[in-house]
Amino acid sequence: MSGDTLIEARGLSSGYGKMAVVRDLDLRVDAGEVVALIGANGAGKSTTLLTLAGELSPMAGAVHFLGAPTTAPMHVRCRNGLGYVTEERAVIMDMTVAHNLKLAAVPPAVAIGYFPALERVMDRPAGLCSGGEQQMLSLARALGREPKLLLADELSLGLAPIIVAGLLETVRAAADDRGIGVLLVEQHVRQALKVADRVYVMERGSIVLSGTAREVSGQLERIESAYLSGSGVGRG
Questions:
Q1: In the chain, what is the straight-line distance between the N-terminal and C-terminal CA atoms, in Å?
Q2: Over the stretch 9-62, which tens digit does the pLDDT of each residue have?
C-alpha cells in the first residue's frame, strides 16, 4: 500500500561543520510504505535521518515534508506529524514506564496495544527495564502520538533477533493499518528486507542502489560484499 509522498530529499547534501557527509541524495517515503536505508557504518544513514528530521540544516538541496519544502526545526516537524526514534533509546531512565508515556501524552493502553510486554513493567523505572523493553517504550511513545511519518534509526541496536523481529513487525503493521510512512535505518538487513517495500543502499554519503525489497533481496549477497562490509568514512 502506498499513497502521497510524505517526505522527500532532493539533491540533498548535509554534514557537520564544513564537511559534507551526505552528498546529492534523492530519496522519498510515501504514506503506507516502509523504506529501508542500509549501508556500512559511516555511510551517512544517521546523518540523512537527522537532516530529514530538521536537526541538521542542508548544505545544498532541499527537504520536502508533506508536499512542501521545509527548513523548520525538528520540534515543528514533530508537531506536524513527524515521529523520530533515535539510536539512543529516547526514554528517561529514572522515570517509570508509565511516567515516560504520560510525558509523551500516550495512554498506557495504547502502548500496551502495541507491545503487551509493557503491561508488566508499567511501574518500573525505565532504567531497570531490559534493552528490548526500553526500545518497545521508545517505539510505543513515537507511534502512540499518531505520526504521519516515522524515522527509525537502528531499532535493533544491541537487541536479540526475536525482539528485533517484533519491533519491525509493529512498524510494518503501523504502515499497513494506519498508513504511516516509515524510513528505517537498520543493521539487521535481512530482517529489514522482510518488512520493507523499497530499499536504498548508501555508500560514502551517496545512494548507490535502490529498488524494491524483492529486487534487493535477489542480489543481497553481492550487495553485502560490495557495500555493507566496510566501515565507510565520516559519521553514520
A1: 30
A2: 999 999 999 899 999 999 999 999 999 999 998 899 999 999 999 999 999 999
**In this structure, is the dihedral angle defined by the CA atoms of residues 157, 34, 106 and 7, taken in order, positive or negative?**
positive
Cβ contacts of residue 17 below 8 Å, gap of 6+?
Answer: none
The residue segments making up the domain with residue 112 are: 31-42+80-227
Cα atoms found within 13 Å of the Cα of residue 92, Cβ hemisphere only: 12
CA gap 29, 35 in Å, rounded: 7
88 inside domain: yes
Element (H, E) at 192: helix 189-195
Cell matching residue 10: 532532493
**Residue 114 resides in a domain:** yes
CATH number of domain containing 205? 3.40.50.300
CA 152 to chain centre: 2
3-state secondary structure of 121: helix
The pTM (predicted TM-score) of the whole model is 0.92
Nearby residues of 226 by Cβ (< 8 Å), 6 or more positions away: none
* 182, part of any domain: yes
Number of domains comprising the chain:
1
Q: Which one is predicted more confidently, 151 or 187?
A: 151
Each residue's pLDDT tens digit, 195-208: 999 999 999 999 99
Residue 74 maps to a domain: no
Neighbour count for residue 51 (Cβ, 10 Å):
24
